[in-house]
């Protein structure tokens, strides 16, 4: 059987849910939305394009790494195996799109929004400035703005 491997860049929509299987394996699941963006020349602005919403399931070591780091609104990159799961609900048969994560990382291109990151960056910049004598700008979050 063929596997479909994907990389999704997006924003976590839900707080991660932690559970354990009957065999004691930890699983962390969360919903992730990835939006494409394009520049509309006529309107002279960026507009949202297609949207992908998936459930991400993290097992074992990936689950352990996600706990305490990833939360609702965290920008992340997820790489893993894409699949659909069919199940029956009160409304009838449903299909869920899921990614079994092989790796989850913070999307550092989308700002300084991670706990303590502005403070760490400011301290590192201060250390570099002291070593080199070069005046370096501080990030807005570290300046209090």
Automatic annotation (TrEMBL):
Keywords recorded for this protein, A-Z: DNA-binding
What Gene Ontology terms describe what this protein does at the molecular function level? single-stranded DNA binding
Classification via InterPro entries: NA-bd_OB-fold (IPR012340), Primosome_PriB/ssb (IPR000424)
Q: What is any Pfam family matched here?
A: SSB
Q: What is this protein called?
A: Single-strand DNA-binding protein
Q: Which organism is it from?
A: Saccharopolyspora gloriosae
């Amino acid at each position: 059987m063929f596997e479909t491997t994907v990389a999704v860049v997006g924003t976590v929509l839900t707080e991660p849910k932690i559970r354990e299987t009957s065999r004691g394996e930890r699983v962390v699941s969360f919903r992730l939305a990835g939006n494409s963006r394009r520049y509309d020349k006529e309107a002279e602005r960026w507009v949202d394009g297609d949207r992908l919403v998936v459930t991400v399931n993290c097992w074992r070591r990936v689950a352990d790494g996600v706990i305490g780091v990833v939360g609702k609104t965290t920008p992340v990159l997820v790489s893993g195996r894409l699949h659909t799961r069919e199940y029956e609900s009160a409304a009838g048969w449903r299909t869920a799109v899921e990614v079994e994560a092989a790796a989850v990382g913070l999307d550092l291109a989308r700002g300084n929004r991670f706990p303590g990151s502005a403070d760490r960056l400011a301290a590192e910049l201060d250390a570099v400035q002291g070593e080199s004598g070069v005046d370096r700008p501080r990030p807005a979050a570290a300046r209090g703005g």
